Amino acid sequence: MFTSIAGNVAIVTGAASGAGLGIAKTYAKAGVHVVITGRTESRLLNTQREIQAEAPNAKILVIVADNTDHGAAKKIVSQTIDHFGKLNILVNCAQTFRANIKVEDVTSDDITAVYESGVFGAWRLMQEALPYLKESQGTIINFASGADTINTPHYAVYASNKAALRSITRIAAKEWGPYNINLNNVNPLNPSQESENINDDSEAKASTEAIVNAIPMRRWGDTQKDVGSVCLFLALPEGHYLTGMTFDVDGGATIRS
Fold first, then answer.
1. Catalytic pick from 27, 132, 155, 158?
2. CA 102 to CA 255: how far, in whole Å?
3. What is the average pLDDT across 167-190?
4. CB-CB contact of 31 with 40 (8 Å)
5. Whether the predicted pLDDT of 195 surpasses 70
6. Domain boundaries along the sequence of the chain
7. At the fourth CATH level, which superfamily is domain 9-249?
8. What is this structure's pTM?
9. Of 84, 30, 20, which Cα lies nearest the Cα of 55?
10. DSSP secondary structure letters along the chain
11. Sheet of strand 33-38, all strands in order from the earlier edge strand to the far edge
């Protein structure tokens, strides 16, 4: 039997859909008070209703914030503390996605958009959250990607951004370990419970099927059962000694041959 973390407080960025939504649901079902952030209020309110449909007693705080805004991190953390009085878990899931761009075609705008929402946005939140995570001896989970591990062509901006975040996580795990804060990377493979990545276009369907067929387990990851469960365990006392690691939650897609 694992230790309950009901009553703990978690910030989950990029929680309006995908992995962020799945993680927020998983935490809420475990009794964790969840702060969900994103750029669009209407989507976040839909997320709030969706979470409360599965976890009726969940305490949820909605904060509209854009990670590319340099003031967003301070806003998110300060409103969390004002509302709940503490912070135990930070999950950096938000990420602007730009791919299918050759290295020679990457623009400064591409780099800024991806890095500001990803590595820089996560870094700023880590810094703002640190004083409160010291108090709670808490957990940070950063979302990286297998794209930099398998060196996916045309993903240079996205993959390099995730590689940087992975490195920051490992170094921070060493620097902040004395505060008993654990930090880890989670690498999901496009987890989706919906068919949002599959449209009526036959070429898109064929591409999606090819990706799934390359996964040893032959399926996408489930945002709650697969990804959310890993993020929940890393926030438990039983998972706290795990730090500076990268968890490839991808059904074996990035197994090194």
1. 158
2. 25
3. 96
4. no
5. no
6. 9-249
7. NAD(P)-binding Rossmann-like Domain (3.40.50.720)
8. 0.92
9. 30
10. -PPP-TT-EEEESSTTSHHHHHHHHHHHHTT-EEEEEES-HHHHHHHHHHHHHH-TT--EEEEE--TTSTTHHHHHHHHHHHHHS---EEEE-------SB-GGG--HHHHHHHHIIIIIHHHHHHHHHHHHHHHHT-EEEEE--TTTTTT-TTBHHHHHHHHHHHHHHHHHHHHHGGGT-EEEEEEESS--SS-TT--S-HHHHHHHHHHHHHSTT-SPPPIIIIIIHHHHHHHSGGGTT--S-EEEESTTTT---
11. 60-64, 33-38, 9-12, 89-92, 139-143, 182-188, 246-249
Is 158 known to be catalytic? yes
Q: What is the per-residue pLDDT for 176?
A: 99
Task: Tokens 């926030």: give the residue.
Answer: 235
Q: Note the pLDDT tens digit of each residue in 107-126.
A: 999 999 999 999 999 999 99
Q: Identify which of 174, 72, 180 has the alpha carbon closest to the alpha carbon of residue 128.
A: 72
In degrees to the nearest 10, what's the CA dihedral of 204, 224, 121, 155?
Answer: -30
Inter-residue contact 141 to 184 (CB < 8 Å): yes
Which residue matches tokens 């930090």? 183
Q: Tokens at residue 100, please? A: 């299918």
How far is residue 107 CA from its own chain's centroid? 25
How many CA atoms within 13 Å lie on the side-chain side of 32? 28
pLDDT tens digits, 52-106:
999 999 999 999 999 999 999 999 999 999 999 999 999 999 999 888 899 999 9
- Tell me which amino acid residue 174 is: K
